[in-house]
Amino acid sequence: MKENNHSSLPFLRQLDRGEDILLCLLLTIMLILACTQIFMRTILSSGLQWADPLLRYLVLWCGLLGALKATGQGKHIALDFSNYLLPKSARFPVALVTDLFCIITTAGLTLASWIFIRNEIEFGGATLLSVPAWAWNIIFPITFGLMCIRYTVHFFLRLSGGFPEATDGRASDQ
Fold first, then answer.
1. What predicted TM-score, i.e. pTM, was given to this entire model?
2. How many C-beta atoms lie closer than 10 Å to residue 22's C-beta?
3. First to last CA, the chain
4. 134: in domain
5. Do residue 154 and residue 85 come from a single domain?
6. Does 5 reside within a domain?
7. Which residues contact 88 (CB under 8 A, 6 or more apart)?
8. Model confidence pLDDT, tens digit, residues 100-126
9. Chain centroid offset of residue 156 CA
């Protein structure tokens, strides 16, 4: 699928830029921390007790932010059979239904993750580095909510004809 062009949508451009910066920062921290742990364990026979749990949370954050980034670029995992099996006239309505399904799914995941966070705030305790457990998991509703926003924007762009069509490499239409 071609990368989506959001040049006319400043909000999505800013979101893309923020994702890039945050991912680079988190990956740099992960790399430095992991190398420090390896060095300390190998050479000094010790390590930072909090480093491994922090690395697990950082991997979770990077994975979810990477999924958000892939969603924004249209490079997420998709069942893209419609471009190959359906005639061109049927692709548009199928794409709209697919976008609606993604909106509903990500909205449901956003709601479920907010409920999870609310419960963590109410009943959870402090975990790593005396930070409340909900703070480490806040990435779930944030990324699912932003994915929902992206899919909603994609839906309305597609509906208005402003969304680029995916190419499937076929020479002729069915």
1. 0.81
2. 15
3. 19
4. yes
5. yes
6. no
7. 173, 174
8. 999 999 999 999 999 999 999 999 877
9. 20
